[in-house]
Amino acid sequence: MENKNRKTNVVSDKDIKEQSEFCKKVKSVISSKYSEKPLACVVTYGCQQNVADSERIKGMLQKMGYGFTDERKNAQLIIFNTCAVREHAEDRVFGNVGMLKSYKHENPGVLIACCGCMMQQKHIADKIKKSFPFVDLVFGTHVVYKLPELIFTALTRKKRVFELPDMDGAIAEGVPVLRDNDKKAWLPIMYGCNNFCSYCIVPYVRGRERSREDDMIVKEAAELVESGYKEITLLGQNVNSYGKDLLPRVTFAQLLRRISEINGDFRIRFMTSHPKDCTKELLDTMADCDKVAKHLHLPFQSGNNRVLKAMNRGYTREKYSELIDYAKSVMGDELSITSDTIVGFPGETYEEFKDTLSLVEYVKFTSLFTFIYSPRKGTPAAEMKDPVTSAEKGKWFKELTDLQEKISADNMKKYEGKIFKSFVYGKGKLGDNYVAARTDGNLIIEFEGTEELIGSFRNIRVTQPLTYVLKGELLN
Ligand code: SAH
Ligand code: SF4
Ligand code: F3S
Known about the structure:
This protein is about 35% helix and about 20% strand. By secondary structure, it is of the alpha/beta class. The protein has a six-stranded parallel sheet, with helices on both faces. The protein has a five-stranded mixed beta barrel with strand order 15-16-17-19-18. β5 (about 135-140), α6 and β6 (about 160-165) form a beta-alpha-beta unit.
């Protein structure tokens, strides 16, 4: 590790080169081991951060000489990139990994690996060690860049490999990337989280907040635009605190402005924004920069101040509403706001939950991601008293989703006659001659058009709002 005049660690060029050498070594091992090019199946769970990590995993695998398949039964290497955010996510992983037991028994040459956020928790890694002996390789979130070395060891040593350092994390530049899509790119700008919201596992499994250098990000964005990418989504758990560890300090608003100055027809998105660090400077920059999508994903989690405090969110309902009012005032009708919210945080009462309902009513989100609280081992909230039954929480949850459905439907009606500059991304579902486009605010508009339109931005007028999609007509 080396420190380039900044507060966080950066993986040295020497270490990255060493991994490049391991790619060559793996290549020669697999060319003698398999008669045909071996295939890898990478299964990704969780958020876009994990999707972006998987694109790096695939980039390295490609360099090692692997091809790819979505079919587990055709693969010589299966990697599960896991998510720990809720119990349900973990159960799915255990179910799917468990299903490979007999497959591995019949095909002992197949390599099975697990990585990602779940593995970074000791009790999970211990469970894999003990109860899933057919998993050959387990590695954590901080050593993804070492995959070539880990695969080499797993292929050449007849022993299971566990590489799970518990550390703050570092920045690894220069890792090859194989992107899933050729028009839409994920671009991580920072890693980790320092917020320790009392319910959340992410800071424990992803380490401390660390930002990539702005020059590196701008360079990567320019290369993406140059090679035809039309939509770039900047990723971080809390992009609003980007750059706090850079010397000199760079703000997220400044970074956004630099990226939007890159020549070309493309759109910039970002996620996730945290209300605690969201500034008027950022909202003004969004309003000001044409290339920045007028879409704000600003999770509020709860509309009640006591619950927000117990969640350690660092803002109040009033501060949140003020940000929303300001964002609407500078971006007007064009702005689409989405959010995340948790139902049934330990100790939440129905009266307190009603404050979430009233905030949802007030903001009128385009869409809302709603979650029932899931206790995460090792977090402060998991130790709090949680007297409300899951049946009761289920009722509250339904009340919230019903309300949001009504709001979404009302919102849709308002779009009739409106014109949206939208990115045509693929074939439509309304009929054979339809194509589908996405607005700035993540709404889907389908319209009659030829496939040649796919991959371009077009102006489309909404002719008929349906329940989940808008029907429209092409203007130009
Ligand atoms: N960094 C983002 C959120 C990442 S996790 C932010 O702070 O906004 C995505 C969402 O999962 C969170 O916004 C939250 O709504 C939900 N979530 C996280 N931990 C959870 C838990 N223990 N139970 C239920 N939902 C949770
Ligand atoms: Fe979790 Fe909070 Fe960090 Fe988001 S900001 S990842 S909810 S700790
Ligand atoms: Fe899940 Fe890890 Fe993302 S816990 S939500 S994959 S950062």
